Amino acid sequence: MFSVLEKLDGEKLTASVQSSFPSIEQTALHIFAAEWLWLKRWTGIFPRASGPYTSSTLRNLLGSYGVPGEMLSGLPGMRNFCDSIEQERREFIRTLTEERLRAPLTFRDMAGMEYSERLVQLMQHVVNHGTYHRGQVTTLLRQAGAETVALDMLYFFRDEEQRAAAVAKP
Question: The CATH number of 2-168 is which of 1.10.260.40, 3.30.365.10, 1.20.120.450, 2.60.120.10?
């Protein structure tokens, strides 16, 4: 997604849109913040919001957990934020067992309400959530007359295979 967002001029990135979030940039930030939030929940940390979901509330919440403000605005910062989430997620996934994936995980939402779901279902939820909002970003990019990127999983798998083959070559 960054490959196309980085080609977008700043005005289109932050322009007001009619969607779930006020801009393409805010929609992208929501995707990444949700991935961060769920990763925290999976590891037993339950961030609480100080009020209704707004850009300001989200930034305050992330800041209170040590996410620097520069990671929350502008594409270079958001890319760094994503890279840090990906690294932490990979470390978490390395620790998983089949038993842990199938076991219920009790967690609290940002309002403090307690829920319990199997970890594997929560992980599937995060993928589904990201797919939904990436689709919104794609639609908003098309409406802005910008380039888009294929989101189908098959394209992702093919790209990953090509990257692995390129790394394996001497």
Answer: 1.20.120.450
